[in-house]
Amino acid sequence: MSPAEIRDEIIDILGDIAPDENLDDLVDDVSFREQLELDSMDFLDIVMELRKRHRVQIPEEDYGNLASMKLTVTYLEPKMRDIVKA
Amino acid sequence: MYDTIIIGAGMSGLAAGIRLAHFDQRVCILERHYTIGGLNSFYRLGGRDYDVGLHAMTNFARKGTKRGPLAKLIRQLRFNWEDFALAEQIGSSIRFPNVALDFGNDIELLESEIAREFPRSIDGFRKLSQSLLDYDDLSGDDPNFNRSARDVLGELIPDPLLREMILCPLMWYGNAREDDMDYGQFCIMFRACYLEGFARPYKGVRLILKNLVRKFRGLGGELKLRSGVSKIHVENGHAVGVVLDDGTEIAGRRILSSAGTIETLRLCDDITRVDVAKAGKLSFIESISVLDRQPQDFDFDRTIVFYNDSDTFHWRRPDNSLCDARTGVICSPNNYRYSAAEGNLPDGIIRITTLANHDLWCSLPDPQYQAAKVEQYDASVASAVRFMPDFRRFTVATDVFTPKTIRRFTWHDNGAVYGAPDKRLDGTTHLSNLFLCGTDQGFVGIVGAILSGISMANRHCLTATDA
Fold first, then answer.
1. pTM to 2 decimals?
2. Which of B23, B76, B78 shows the shortest C-beta gap to A41?
3. In this predicted complex, what is the ipTM?
4. Is there a contact between B463 and A60 (Cβ–Cβ < 8 Å)?
């Protein structure tokens, strides 16, 4: 997956977790917590959805790398590079 | 072999099951009763539907709210706001002799009532409600969690009568401890009842349960009714599975139990003696009256009335009598703001809840039990009509459920509605793969129970899985 495809995938997951949010206006370098009021339960969901959909394992000590869209894509790029977008 | 076996198909077990099944676990929920819901259930009698449990869903929030327990559970279970079809309360009251305080889903009403009746205490009350606006301690980490709520209130509210009036609804809707309340539990209930408020789906608890079960099954979860667990089989300090009442053995990697702390430990075959004294003691009867008209036709528009007939609120199990009708809760499911398309419920309904003694009710032989239901119904209604218009001449049908009924639906010791007074907030037990959810883990009420199931599934059953 390219960084743009990874971003689309994260948007899709966020759409599942927070269906009432308008994600078109999401700013990539502002934290999810601030923009969407995500809490620790929601971050666990991002991790679990990535595991469910793509078998990507994210250890708990790395959760801090998912704070914003920009950080998330950077962190996931090496892990998801070889995944072919369905 | 299941990834997780869940004991009990109440709100917490179903919610946990949805979380785990959503993330591809093989999950089985085992329920002893022939129906789902646990304490929050329903039954049919004489062609009419009756709810057990639900008077109101607490923690009301409007669609799109981002924070708070209701928003959290909708997100976590992937529901839409519309799925719960919540109608807000018209308004509720706390009624003591000579003084009444109205409240609704906006704290300003209660504040103005207190400013009028208890001007000395309004500043302290505002300070309290401000500090609890975002109270969100689901882990019990707050150092004040185990303080006495009565002590904390004593420091803030100079009027002793107001302290009793504030505590009355909060204890009625979620306090497993007699006389006093843990401050943490007080904060949770204060937010749930006064800051967020009450709502109900037109179809009552059925709608919520139907949504939960449909989602669970849609995700591939298995639900087995009439499947009581008689034993949790333990090998080398590890739970390996359960044995059902009919002898069937079911293996699982881990077990999540909503049966209650003591009730669960008693099932474990490595434990020979469990201290029964720690079970909760508070149980209720509920006297249900079906009326030939809507309560608003005789000028009763209150959703819930919490009443107490003296200036001191006694929150205790009656030791020497079947019931203690000095205090009670009156609920009319008609008095919600249902949408025009729904209209109002076909029958007028008044439900009255009264403190009761489980052991005394259960010791009655059947003819006396039936007679006691009639007597205690009369006594409860007679007590309640001191605080609302007398509706007795409009009654067309009645029913009473007792601690014995509650025991049958929940299997909790003593028919304890809110479980044991000492909660296991971290949900752990003596076994590394046996966990607790539901009333004895932490939070009560429909929203609280669902959140308990979600948080225990997340904490103990999801992060540990290998996909």
1. 0.92
2. B76
3. 0.86
4. yes
